Amino acid sequence: MITEEIRVDGVVQGVGFRPNVYRIAKALGLKGEVYNDGKGVLIKILGTEDKITEFVRQLQQECPPLAKINEITRTQYIGELNFDDFVISNSIHNVINTQIAADAATCPQCQAEIFDPYSRWFRYPFTNCTHCGPRLSIIRSIPYDRTNTSMAEFAMCPTCDRDYKDVTNRRFHAQPTACHVCGPKAWLERADGKPFTVPMFSMLDEIDAVCTLLQKGEIVAIKSIGGINLAYDAFYPIYGKHIIKCSKNAQKLNLSIVIISLLQFSLAGT
User: Fold this and answer.
1) pLDDT at residue 268 is higher than 60
2) Which of 19, 66, 96, 157 could form a disulfide with 15 if both were Cys (CB 3.0 to 4.6 A apart)?
């Protein structure tokens, strides 16, 4: 039996990397710990040389979708590892020198839950998991833990907490995980400060009302995870010109068109 310290550098925080390390180590019967620190991810591990080599191989080949490994450094661990199992330990706060993943588009699994009437996340706009959702835009400091993000003020409900601790769950150690019960809420306000009334729209909720406004040709300011976006229906180009005209930074303003697919793009181009 040997003990090693394995340093993993790259985009390895906030991307489900520690849970992946945990699963691989458990499957190989290895003992030790993994935790985030200011430099990335550090693993202290006990096992046979063959098992540890296989462990590193699987880490490289089974990297989570949002993760990117730049370098893996293996060194002999000096000291004793007193672990009866493999665990995810609390993060260590030290000198910051690591990378954080950018925000990621909602994954297909989360999209399916958002549109499933029987799902806990039905029509919940902030649905996310270890494979998608906010990262860079919500972080306040390293290491990437919920307490160091804008989600710190939202305590997980018992059900989300159970998902967070379940190694078989897609949200295992997903720091921003939330639902209707415990997460942030979306709301809609008029530019003049007056409240919207339900009879104004045929809608299920505020999100549906925004869709109705866009379909009517209105400009909607959406305060999102990464700032404020001005949205309008691209089939009303006059509003794009109006936004540029009213902007103080008109010369620097770029307008982006949201396209669902390349097919839609080709159809729009015609």
Assistant:
1) no
2) 66
46 touches 1 (CB < 8 A): yes
Report the b/e string of 37-48 with b at 16+ CB within 10 A.
bbbbbbbbbbbe
Lookup result for tokens 């990117």:
68
Residue range 112-121: average pLDDT?
95
- pLDDT category of residue 264 using cuts at 50, 70 and 90: low
Q: How far apart are CA 39 and CA 13, in angstroms?
A: 10
User: Which CA distances in Å does 79 have to 4, 82, 96, 108?
Assistant: 10, 10, 25, 45
**Residue 180: what pLDDT?**
94
Closest CA relative to residue 160, chosen from 173, 148, 145, 149: 173
Sign of the Cα torsion 254, 260, 263, 264 reads: negative
Q: What are 231's strand-pairing partners?
A: 220
110 contact partners, CB below 8 Å, separation of at least 6: 121, 127, 128, 129, 131, 132, 133
Q: Lowest-pLDDT range, 25-29, 82-86, 104-108, 211-215?
A: 211-215
Fill in the DSSP letter of residue 177.
-
3-class SS of residue 33: strand
Mean of the per-residue pLDDT values of the chain? 84
Domains of the chain in sequence order = 2-99 (3.30.70.100), 102-184 (3.90.870.30), 198-269 (no CATH)
139 alpha carbon, distance to own chain's centre:
11
